[in-house]
Amino acid sequence: MAPQLGPHELLHVFSFLEARDLLSTAQVNKVWNEVSRTKELWRQLCLRRWSSCKASQMVPGTQTWKQYYFCRSELEFRMASGRPEDFICKAIAGHKGWINELAYVSTNECRFDGRKKSVVCTVSSDGTVRAWDLNEGTQIWSSPLQPDIMENLVTYPQLQLVVTIDSRGLIKAWKADNGWEWASFRLPKSPSALEACDHPEGPFLLAACQGGNLYTLTVPQLHLVSKVPVFPNNPVSLNCSPDQQWVFASTENLHLGPKVFYIPSLLYPSEDKPPVSTTLPAYLISRGCWAPEEAARLIVVHGNDNGTEVIVTTFELGAKKSRDRVDVLVRQVASFLLPMIPHLIKGLGSEAILLASDSKLVQFTIYGLQLAAFQDHEKHITSLWVDSSRVITSSFDLSLRVYVWNKENKYPILKSCYHLLGGSHRWASGFTHVESDSMSIVGVETRNDGTGILRSYCFRVQHS
């Protein structure tokens, strides 16, 4: 008679199993059942499947790792299926003008203890910034009426902070839980860009104005750290790298090449030296984005020398440090001709690019291989949201389209899954923005009367 395995030996063997296999082993006998429910087995399953999973998402006494695994698996299934029974849709109104921007102020953690709320903030032409509970479909707070149009905002979820900017360049920081005004700073001219950066040494804010200057401010105090001329008398667009060491600055002036600044030189400016930067060899620029899974891989859409062709060029950036200076290292990784003129560009992983051109969505590699193309929308695509599990587009056809990544091949390839409908074209002109977190999707629906509402889709999951 063969000797039976003890609990420790079984635990070692079970550590190689997947969730479905563990459920089967639990049916064998009482000992196997007890071992299969071991906390560490299900914790490792969660960490293997979701690398971002943290112990902080578990509240003692309310949930086990096994329950977390099945709750999150159910949530992912519902978000990939999009059936009417998978979510609750709410139309959330309150602003008396159009909504210019929105951003989540709640963290992106998956929690299934009943306490997780999806909260967004919006700014509007009505001169207010407001916070909304998407699950309840209610307004949490509204700022006092401001004298000018609120144009843009960024959020710092870990600090529970919202930073806004109005049409005259007044920047304000607000506490996200109650709308209390924390600090303010005024740009000398109207704004052109606002970028939140979570640097390893602490969060800070980048702001640019129509005069072409770049401002670095502390958060939340909004104290000025540095002011740098970038494109004199031209508006500036900003985009920070995933490692928060570089900021990509571009302008609408097609004859000015884009620049990249080394962020530590902005945070610790020198009195006798300009900040460390370089101009990229890519003129007639259209758009740029970073590859999210690389420290500093920049993808730029630009024209050729005479402007007759559209090119996508990928650069790697690095810094060579010596005792008294820092040199910027730029290496071209890839380049290819693009058979379209995109108005939106996003990166995925280290080698995938998503481009939107009018109503078409196309996926390329950075080497020019087309992986997928979709013509799901009937009208212009207005915004593009991307993370490691799905892509969402919004359009003037009053729909949101949801795609998921098929990661079984060498390159992850998009798969079209479903669409979410907004209101009636009798009352609305389309979706202008879309954002998402781990448990919800929210779009800005512009109304024909000149106002905007939020339309939220909160996905159901059993709290068990």
TrEMBL record:
Pathway: Protein modification; protein ubiquitination. SUPFAM superfamilies: F-box domain, Quinoprotein alcohol dehydrogenase-like. InterPro entries: F-box-like_dom_sf, F-box_dom, F-box_SCF_Substrate_Recog, Quinoprotein_ADH-like_sf, WD40/YVTN_repeat-like_dom_sf, WD40_repeat_CS, WD40_rpt. One of its GO terms (cellular component) is cytoplasm. It holds the Pfam family WD40. The keyword Repeat applies. The keyword Iron-sulfur does not apply. Residues 1-45 form the F-box domain. This is F-box domain-containing protein. It comes from Otolemur garnettii (Small-eared galago).
